[in-house]
Amino acid sequence: MTPDALRACRSLLFVPASNARAVEKARGLAADAIILDLEDAVRDEDKARAREAILEAAAEGFGGRPLIVRVNGPHSAHFSEDIVAVRHCGADFVLLAKTESAREIADAAELMNRPALAMIETPRGVLAAETIAPLSAGLVAGTNDLAATLGVPADAGRAGLAYALQHLVLTARAAGIPAFDGVYNGLAADEALAAECAEGRAFGFDGKTAIHPSQIEAINRAFAPDEAALEAARRLIAAASGGAERHEGRMIEALHVAQARALLARAEGRAESLATPRSAP
Known about the structure:
Helix content: 40-55%
Number of domains: 2
Distance between the termini: 32 Å
Oligomer: single chain
Low-confidence stretches: 273-281
Largest sheet: 8 strands, parallel, barrel
Strand content: 5-15%
Mean pLDDT: 91
CATH class of the largest domain: Alpha Beta
CATH superfamily of the largest domain: Phosphoenolpyruvate-binding domains
Order of helices and strands: EHEHEHEHEHEHHEHEHHEEH
Strand order of the largest sheet: 1-2-3-4-5-6-7-8
């Protein structure tokens, strides 16, 4: 599976690799990608069992959906054992927790012999995202750790994270890779979840990570284009004849056509990048 498979993902569900029941249940859920977690969701005494579990889980697969394994950060005592486990399992991608440098993500991809996504959850990671993104298959916002490190109060909402989140989307777009918003901590599919999804979509994120099955439907709905937007994209593509021109009361050009094509591709589960091509030297 190529890194482009991640572009059409809206919901990425974290599942503790040590929880066999949760792993089995995930096979019947509507999440676009599954993240088997070896890090925060697994207690230290269960780490070894979790590593064994990813081998069996990956062998059985998740219906052709991307399978990602989140490993402990490069400075963790568990990292070296995670490397061995991931190298021997059939996961499509690895997600490196607490990524803070380009060297860390490059090493993770090489050591585990598969494309690596970077989880950005520290101030150092945010500031280094410009160099991390080009070596990554995608960026994932670690909003809980980031908020704690920044000293954002738990009841303060996400206003204090706005710069960091927008910076991650900016660096991901410059590198031509997808970016995924962090988790919502509530377990109910309530109005607060819908609002956070809408905010993440407005920031430009491609999708959002989830920690509970009840969140998947709301996330998929929020990050999928609605029929009105799809029909508008079809009309724009049909009307465009090249160059700048008027269309339905506004000016459009090649960029707007590319956006419309990318929207349709996403709705059809295809990959189409919006990254700006680099000019030849």
